[in-house]
Amino acid sequence: MESKIISVPVMADLFARGEKPEFLFWVGCAGAYDDRYRKVTRAFTKILTHLNISYAVLGKEETCTGDPARRAGNEMLYQMQALQIIDTLTRYDVKKIITICPHCFNIFRNEYPDLGGHYEVTNYVQFLDQYIENGSLKVDDTLFGNTRITYHDPCYLGRGNDIYAEPRSILKRLTRDFVELERNKSFSYCCGAGGAQMFKEAEEGKKEVFIERTEEVLRSKAGIVATACPFCMTMLTDGLKYKNSEEVKNLDIAELIVQVMDL
Amino acid sequence: MVRQIAFAVTLLITLGVFAFTINRLISYFRFTKASFPVRDLGKRFRVMLEVAIGQTKIFRHPVMGFFHALVFWGFCVIAFGSIEMVIDGLSGAERSLRVLGGFHDFIMASGDIFALLVTISILIFLSRRLFVHVKRFEGIEMKKKSHQDANLALSMILLLMISLLGMNAAYVQMQTDAGEPIYGVYPVGAALSVLLAGLSPQGLHLAHEVFWWAHILLIFAFANILPYSKHFHVFMSVPNTFLTRLEPLGKLTNMDDITREVKLMLDPETAFSAPAAETPVGRFGVKDVEDVSWKNYFDSLSCTECGRCTAVCPANTTGKMLSPRKIFMDLRARMKEKGPGLVKNGREFSDNRSLLRDYISEAELWACTTCNACAQECPVNINHPTLIVDMRRYLVMEESSAPGGLKTMFSNIENNGAPWQYSPEDRLLWAENLEIKVS
């Protein structure tokens, strides 16, 4: 088997050549900087390449959507970020956006329209499910069939935007032993990082939220806990470390697909 | 005739007191801010049918939800009988809606059976409150008054049902003994009527009168106690579901005042040509009751302190200060405290207290993860996170007050366009040496 170098297309370069991709792939700050989550970005990029999708990233022109600032109450900073980004996206005539981070997904889908930014926004989990359903992405249960897999619903995919079915549909193709956590779907329990908690010390309490959720993951006796959000991944990975349970793997849905397809 | 006059006077007093109370609550709404426009009436009607009439969110706790649904549906059916009692009381007629024929029979039978089901449900609720420790009924915001309110409401409903069943039983026995026709069908009343079988015609008549008056006077008293208790949700919950915030839970409300300012900052050219804002820019975010939206206040009046929000809150369940239920109980209490002063002295009135800090601490607000579990769970569609974020907006934009970590995050976004301190130049490092296997 041979390998091919992927050169990730950047919007400014394409534009200079007079080309226009179908999708803007919005990487997000965690996808670009977080050591662990970069692997997820790379995995999803492999899938985009495999599917021959016409896409580009903004690269150095990408900047924070303003989500953590907004949820922390800094509407001014959020809107400055948002209006600049809308300006950039207008310049590149962006119509369709794919995001990996659910927080970026939520803000593009629900909140940018209030500021004049109207896009067709797809979360990568929906995208992956769609390409698996239409047969373009061929996955099966040869690799993880006997591994118990569970799924932690990110708040901004689940309750925030009612995306419950797609991640489950994908995971059930990868394993014959999919289990739900005790609190799942709309009853799901937060990882503890949302609402800008990721960037501050937890308020005083009896327990950390991510420990509470990690204990639930451990009770499920799953070998893999699948996530679909950079913040959930940080929290659960930390939780598993804290609980000395690193034999339980915390992997993103895109990573599982890349492993199954051996891309 | 005396009976009719006595009834009419009682009814007038009831309606008068009720109008006074409601008028005062409505006057407080004048001091709240605009919220979303109430459009999409069809969709709103559907939400109301599902959530209020269908009790869909109550059923998220299936067992207790079932008993609550019985009480709610029972109330809807029994209310029809109450309307008949008011007509009877004013006109001096008996069972006047019998002109509706089979429908009357059906409604009366349903009310009679539901009265028994509601009695059973209420007995279960009361025992749970009195003899079982239910965690969600506890918390720092659950003072003695909250528990008394709940037990009073349940006891009154219990008495309402007992008087209704007594009335039906006496009616069935009275008509049977006299050989008169029975209007309506009363299966439970008929079964209970054997208990009254020995009474004389006068005794039966008296028993019927006592139950009849007890039932209607309890309704009148209950209606006027409700607005002063947490059990006001009997009136408010159905309209509150109609007035649901229809947007996805993940969406926050845009601050248009800020949009105007930011647009001026980003494009100074327009600073001179842009028309001045139509309304003077007030305070950013929520500090006190006059900053909340009418919807926030409506939500607070609809809360019956069931605590389902708090029971699922990740902050609360891990011992943090935040309790979503408390936020809305505080809003209601603060309006009750400040409202009269606002009505009397106008919007500028100050009592040197505020919702923020005197009621809700910063530690509570900063504990929220905006996970929306509370809003998802609320059986009457209260939206807690938007109010919590509005209070954070006040803290950050009016007082520059935020936990240290958040201030660092803000300056990172301002300086290098990411919540962490990384250079925009490094945004594509993830893409280096990326290979894909090809066969």
Walk me through what this model shows.
The complex is a heterodimer of chains A (263) and B (439). In chain A, helix 10 links the parallel strand 8 (224-227) and strand 9. Chain A has helices at residues 11-16, 29-33, 35-50, 67-71, 75-91, 102-111, 124-133, 165-174, 209-219, 230-242, 253-261, and strands at 2-5, 23-26, 55-56, 96-99, 120-123, 148-151, 177-179, 224-227, 249-252. Chain A has eleven helices and nine strands. Chain A is globular, with a radius of gyration of 18 Å. With 263 residues, chain A is α/β, with parallel strands linked by helices. Chain B has 439 residues and is an all-alpha fold. Chain B has two domains: 2-30 and 61-230, Fumarate Reductase Cytochrome B subunit, CATH 1.20.950; 256-420, Orthogonal Bundle (Fumarate Reductase Iron-sulfur Protein, Chain B, domain 2), CATH 1.10.1060. Chain B is built from 19 helices and one strand. In chain B, helix 8 crosses helix 11 (294-302). The longest helix of chain B has 35 residues, at 144-178. The mean pLDDT of chain B is 95. The interface between A and B is large, with 81 and 77 residues.
